[in-house]
Amino acid sequence: ATWLGVMGGGQLGRMFVHAAQMMGFKVAVLEPARDCPAGHAADHLICAKYDDEAALAELALKCAAVTTEFENVPAQSLAFLAERTFVAPGAACVSVAQDRLEEKRFFTGCAPTSGVLPAPYKAILGNDDIDAIPDALFPGILKTVRMGYDGKGQVRVKSKDDVRNAFAGMGGVACVLEKMLPLAYEVSVLTARGADGESVVYPIAENVHRDGILFTTTVPGPNVCAETAAKAQAAALSIIAQLGYVGVLCIEFFVLQDGSLVVNEMAPRPHNSGHYTIDACVTSQFAQQARAMARLPLGDVRQHSPAVMLNILGDVWFEGDSDTPREPAWDKILALPGANLHLYGKDDPRRGRKMGHITFVDPTLELAQQNLRAACGILGIPF
Ligand code: ATP
Ligand code: MG
Ligand code: MG
């Protein structure tokens, strides 16, 4: 059998393992934690740090291609792997996506052809930068340049004093101050590009966040007009072409109250907002990643049913203020028409931790939304 490798053992790696195995591949996972969602599903787990050269060499030797499910994998590790096997996405692409400043500079450079700009921003690397912040950037959000996800490493700021406090609070690490924009709604565009430059773009997804974490994804998005969808999809295709990207990549956009489109960030991997593709599209984002890695033709991105995805956080294991987890009523969830329950095999639920998701695939979007509201009721999630 042909082996594919993945750096990272989280739920994205697990769903990749499942998709690749369905296509007949064997999958090796490299991850420091032995007990991890992808490790339990993989054909082989290499338990080592992401920069362990002996482990990387073993992965490269075993696998016809290696990918990453974790955007903060050291870019040098991907470069090391690339000297020994086919790696997609490449180190250079991942390193742009790991650094919010580089990412914004890259998006800005793409703007003449992509037609979209990032939010107005300023790099905050030291106190001199804080003194020089233009008033027009307030109110704003201070974000760490590296490592942030699910809204972690972000502070809302109204003044230079707020920025000084927040910057010190984050230990003085490199940050970027972004102007807070008046959002009408948020969308993401999932794409894939093959080594031969062939590209595909999935239907645009509308996303709702709660406390900085993705709450629901709805496709087709109830707010999205055809013009905005076409503009965001064209921008995403232009960006991946300019990046010379290979593999699955997702770009998040803001749609402002005046209808204009702003590019937020990109994830060099399958994305939480693309989970709906597992149940609602001909080719899931994970099967697509396997195709791109194995340099096979990319798959059909057609969506066959309206879909809504609800993230399941550890919170639903806890009733009220209780500290004792109890299993949610999955039987009631599974009785809802069109329900597809995905749990990631994590044994220790914690509040705020992504434990799984449910995608409702129904004949109409209204039915899917109705079933999602019913699921929220069953799980005790305020809607
Ligand atoms: P992810 O888990 O998607 O990687 P993240 O921690 O990298 O999240 P962002 O995507 O930058 O964070 O921001 C999280 C959310 O905060 C956005 O989806 C949006 O709802 C809100 N947000 C971020 N930046 C802005 C902005 N400039 N103006 C308005 N809202 C914003
Ligand atoms: Mg992010
Ligand atoms: Mg984001």
Explained architecture:
With 383 residues, the chain is α+β, with helices and mostly antiparallel strands. It has 3 domains: 3-87, Rossmann fold, CATH 3.40.50.20; 120-179, Dna Ligase, domain 1; 183-379, 2-Layer Sandwich (D-amino Acid Aminotransferase, Chain A, domain 1), CATH 3.30.470.20. Helices cover 32% and strands 26% of the residues. The chain is built from 13 helices and 18 strands. The strands form 3 sheets. Strands 10, 11, 12, 13, 14, 15, 16, 17 and 18 form a 9-stranded antiparallel β-sheet that branches. A 5-stranded parallel β-sheet has the order 3-2-1-4-5, with helices on both faces. Helix 4 runs antiparallel to helix 5 (91-97). The longest helix has 18 residues, at 226-243. The chain is globular, with a radius of gyration of 21 Å. The relative contact order is 0.12. The structure holds adenosine-5'-triphosphate (ATP) and magnesium ion (2 copies). It catalyses: 5-amino-1-(5-phospho-beta-D-ribosyl)imidazole + hydrogencarbonate + ATP = 5-carboxyamino-1-(5-phospho-D-ribosyl)imidazole + ADP + phosphate + 2 H(+). Keywords: ATP-binding, Ligase, Nucleotide-binding, Purine biosynthesis. It is an enzyme of class 6 (ligase). ATP binds at residues 100, 143, 148-154, 178-181, 186, 209, 264-265.
Strand content: 25-35%
Query: What Rg do the Cα atoms give?
Result: 21 Å
Q: Kindly report the CATH topology of the largest domain.
A: D-amino Acid Aminotransferase, Chain A, domain 1
The chain-level mean pLDDT equals 97
Strand runs, count: 18
Task: Tell me the count of domains.
Answer: 3
Count of alpha and pi helical runs: 13
Which CATH class of the largest domain? Alpha Beta
Q: Architecture of the largest domain, CATH level 2?
A: 2-Layer Sandwich
Oligomer: single chain
Report the end-to-end length measured between terminal Cα atoms. Answer: 46 Å
Bound chemical compounds: adenosine-5'-triphosphate, magnesium ion
Task: Give the overall form.
Answer: globular
Helicity level, as a percent range? 25-40%
**Which segments are poorly predicted (pLDDT under 50) over 5 or more consecutive residues?**
none
Helix/strand class:
alpha+beta
Specify the CATH homologous superfamily of the largest domain: ATP-grasp fold, B domain
- Largest sheet, strands/sense/barrel: 9 strands, antiparallel
Family: Belongs to the PurK/PurT family.
Pfam family, one: PurK_C
EC number: 6.3.4.18
Keywords: ATP-binding, Ligase, Nucleotide-binding, Purine biosynthesis
